[in-house]
Design goal:
This protein is mainly α and 173 residues long. 87% of the residues lie in helices and 0% in strands.
């Protein structure tokens, strides 16, 4: 091996190490934030239940639960990137889908209040809901093209996740 190839090899190893270190740090931060949010959410749930305020806070609880799911999905994406050194678009699309659903739930829950207070704000919320609906359709179509139609292959992908193997179908990469 000549000098240039040796230098490239060592630089490549160095960059891989830095990339792995960053992914581990991000994973730890995401896991910590998700865990803290989950604990806080359990505490809020118990408080609302004991105080009889669960029904009026259910949308807020659902909003924060979906936020926790977003963090977990991003953590999964970091884990896949760490293991395979590949950035896959599927988990990002799932995160986007959860985020859009989360926003739709919040806006929908606030619609009656907006309708009473200001007609212009209500109209803007309706436009936002329309755009969010279009965004959901686009995300679902994108996911459909990235993931196979066969339900057994979804089970195979889960099996591959557990064993750390890469999927064999090129559409899953």
């Amino acid at each position: 091996m000549n000098r240039t190839n040796t230098l490239r090899h060592w630089l490549s190893l160095g960059f891989n190490f830095v990339e792995d270190a960053v992914y581990v740090g991000l994973g730890l931060l995401l896991a910590g934030v998700a865990s803290a949010l989950l604990i806080a959410e359990i505490i809020y749930f118990v408080q609302y239940l004991v105080n009889g305020q669960l029904s009026e806070n259910i949308v807020m609880l659902l909003d924060r639960i979906l936020l926790i799911i977003i963090f977990v999905e991003v953590l999964y994406t970091v884990q896949v990137s760490f293991r395979q050194h590949v950035l896959r678009p599927g988990p990002f699309l799932v995160v986007g889908l959860i985020a859009v659903t989360r926003r739709i739930l919040v806006v929908t829950a606030e619609l009656p209040k907006m309708a009473r207070e200001d007609h212009a704000i209500f109209q803007n919320a309706m436009i936002e809901l329309g755009l969010l609906t279009v965004l959901i359709v686009a995300l679902v179509i994108s996911l459909h093209f990235l993931r196979p139609d066969d339900p057994d292959s979804a089970a195979q992908e889960q099996s591959n996740r557990s064993s750390g193997r890469r999927p064999t179908d090129s559409r899953l990469r």
